Amino acid sequence: MKPLADAAARQLAVERFEVPVLLEAGAGTGKTRALVSRLLTWTLGPGWREAEERLTSRARERRAAPPADDLVAAEVLDGLVAITFTEAAAAEMAGRLATSLAAVAAGQLPEDAAESLAAVGPQAALRARRLVDELGRARIQTIHAFCRGLLAEHPFEAGLHPGFRVDADEREVARLADEVLADQLTARLAGDGDPDLLALLADRIGPEELRETLLFALREGVTPADLERDPLPAPFAEAWLAEVARVLAPFAADLAAFGPRLPRNQTAATEMAGVLDALLRASRSDLPPLDRLESVVAAADEILARWEKSHLAPWASGEGLTTIEKKRPEGALPFPTLAAPALSILRDLRGVSPARLGRLRRLLAPLLGALRERMRRQGAVLFSDLLARAADLLERRRDVRDAARRGIRQLLVDEFQDTDRQQCRLIAQLALAPGGPPPPGLFVVGDPKQSIYGWRRADLAAYEAFLADAVAAGGVRARLEVNFRSLPAILDEVTRAVAPSMVAEPGIQPEFQPLVAWRTAPDPAPPAVEFWCSATAEGLDKTQSAAASRIEAAAVARDLLARRAAEPQRRWSDFGILLRTTSDQEIFLQALRVAGVPFEVERDRSYWRRREVIDLNAAVRAILLPGDHLALLALLRSPFVGVPDAALVPLWRGRLPERFDALGGGDRADEAALAALFVAVEAEIAGRAPGLERIAG
Asked: How many CB atoms lie within 10 A of CB 40?
């Protein structure tokens, strides 16, 4: 087999342990396999050798016997830290390492690590067995669990209660926030009242809104000092006003000239042009920037309140114009080209108030300080606060940082594309910061193209800055680009569709990197990458997801029928439908039923919600649980029995539930009474239940 195009990067991952290794791994390139291979190679090779040398040196100093293999294994794994974001990912990593070690113990060397482990020789199997026995000592965990452990070791240095606990569901913190608000707001309303609080109350920002804002600020790691800094300084406001004028001026001018020619929208266009003119004049007035911004926001709010849904949104999409209105002077831009950015920037301005923001900052700063102090005394820590506190601790206390470093020989960070500034601070202190004991070997792996920036506070600028710092510290970057998951046709289409729009922008957008297909043999089926648009095309409203799913499901069923008709030699089992989630599975199954396409479901989360299963469950409960009259009612109405709704009231009037419960006694008289009740009710409703004669039995 010819070598992989990224073989050098894969080899780097399992050979270089003395410098930071920064691996970018695209989708389907075997990222987890590379990470586990590195763990495997280090624990069996350099990690074992270094641990054995340390323990042997200590033994000589004490004139003791050489260390046993189980002690060496424990020493190796004590120095291993591998962190990721979720408990499931940590469990998978630990499980795959255990499986790989077990394979080596059985004499099987994984392909990715075979060359590196060959140098270990026959000792590899023995070492692997000892490592499996001690694997629980390795810290393969979430980054939050790592931070919690670090803080628990040094609570006083971190400024925490020695018995602190993580308030995962935020119930205790919410209770403390309520106490702080009750105390502070009561005091601030005494006498003439706090002017900031009174103004906010007049703006309909009351205790509940303050509570939510306070808790949000806490979750985001905001400190009272942060609230002292103005988020809307004059230069920022000036730049924003300039951008508003740049976007809105062409739209306002066009609307003023074009408005009188809009037969259906003339009045709205003329009035809107007037408000836009006032907005633009306010943006260029001689008032201070924040005062001008306040006036601009007021005008923007008026425009949106009056015309957003009725005119602006349709104009922006081009769907709110008649044929006559779409006609433009020669050389003029299409009206939606001007309306769409205008609507976007007006929405950005919605509700922004520098004055209100200032009041809120002045009020929240002491509230936040009081809440944090109360949390400290009570020993309550938010889950989202663990990273910041751990990073602060390592930056403030060099002795703590040095102690943490001494306990780590290899540090591996998975899913690094979802990193944030706090995580970067933490990892930098452990592995990059100068001074102190030698830093551990560092291995970070991730793919910036797969990050959902903003989720988990992920920050591309922080990611890029960290990589630059790591390279400056002697680190090396590499990229996995061979994709084992997809066929060439799919990867080629992804490149064609995505590459033109994924333009690199520092701190905002990563560079697109094409992937190379591992499977290059021609596929027996013709390549077919299709883009389907499932829309109702009715009116101006966006197609609802359920409607889109029904449209797509029907199209899939038609496509399957057409393909089978074109290739009658194909069996239905030759076709497959992969769904991203099972939430719409029943919609697709129903479309297949209607089309007459036979199918088999390999994974069906909706099993217990299927009608026949619900009915059977009701039958079992009604029989086995006398007294469960709801189950009895469901059974009677199910296709198994088919009692019409018109019979239910007479049956209950005839004490059906009690008679049914009594059947378990084996008394023939009870059975006869129940049968007589059914006959009587059937006669009673004979003329009121259409189709009764078609129900057998």
From this structure: 26
Q: What's CA 180's distance to the chain center, in Å? A: 32
In the three-class reduction of DSSP (H, G, I as helix; E, B as strand; rest coil), residue 629 is classed as helix
Within a 13 Å sphere around the CA of 16, how many CA atoms are in the beta-carbon half? Answer: 19
Residue 527's pLDDT is what? Answer: 59
SS (H, E, C) 306-344: HHHHHHHHHHHHCCCCCHHHHCCCCCCCCHHHHHHHHHH
Dump pLDDT digits (tens) for 585-633. Answer: 889 999 999 999 999 887 666 666 777 888 888 888 888 777 777 788 8
SS (H, E, C) 146-190: HHHHHHHHCCCCCCCCCCCEECCCCHHHHHHHHHHHHHHHHHHCC
The dihedral built from the CA positions of residue 115, 117, 123 and 128, taken in this order, carries a sign that is negative
- CATH code of the region 7-145+385-485: 3.40.50.300
The answer to pTM > 0.90 is: no
Which pLDDT tens digit goes with each residue over 82-129?
A: 999 888 889 989 998 999 999 889 888 887 777 888 888 889 999 999
SS3 459: coil
DSSP letter string, 478-529? EEE-EESSS-HHHHHHHHHHHTTT---BTTTBPPP---EES--SPPSSPP--
CA atoms of 613 and 619, how far apart (whole Å): 10
For 443, phi then psi, to 5°, come to: -140, 115
Name residues whose C-beta falls within 8 Å of residue 643's C-beta, 6 or more positions apart in sequence. Answer: 636, 637, 651
For the CA atoms of 450, 454, 457, 458, what is the dihedral angle to 10 degrees?
Answer: 30
In degrees rounded to 5, what are phi and psi of residue 134? -105, 10
Burial, 533: exposed, middle or buried (Cβ in 10 Å; 0-12, 13-18, 19+)?
A: exposed
Q: Evaluate whether 588 touches 622 at the Cβ level (below 8 Å).
A: no
Domain ranges of the chain: 7-145+385-485, 171-221+355-381, 239-350, 545-608, 643-697
Sign of CA dihedral 187, 193, 199, 204: positive
